[in-house]
Amino acid sequence: MDVTIMMVAMSPFLMVAAIVYFSISGGTKRRAAVLNTVEEAIRAGQQLTPATIRALGAKKDTGSDMKTGAILMAVAAAIVVFGWTMTGLDDDFPQSVFNGIAAFPGFIGLVLLGFGFTAKKEDSDQD
Q1: Which residue from 7, 12, 38, 94 puts its CA 20 to 30 A from 123's CA?
Q2: Residue 72 sits in the same domain as residue 15
Q3: Distance between CA atoms of residues 118 and 120, nearest Å
Q4: Residue 98: other Cβ atoms inside 10 A
């Protein structure tokens, strides 16, 4: 097999791996910078309040589960609609295949929405 054809065939998978790598490394560098700033402030003898630490960006985003869950539910709905539009091709086979594919992001989205709802209840109890 020609190397060029193999690289073209592997490029979507390599692209996904590169996106995940850069996303994770960027988040890690950002958290390291916040921790270094907090560490230097403690060494300098400054008192850090929770508001100061939140201002530095070291807060937990409670809405991220809700956003991600809603996006995954939308992806699942789009896959179902895409399968529904293809039902004229060969009976109901495309619809059942796309319904099965849509189950993966759909169920993950449901779980993340559940996490988001329970996290909001826990945060409101603490305040």
Answers
A1: 38
A2: no
A3: 5
A4: 21
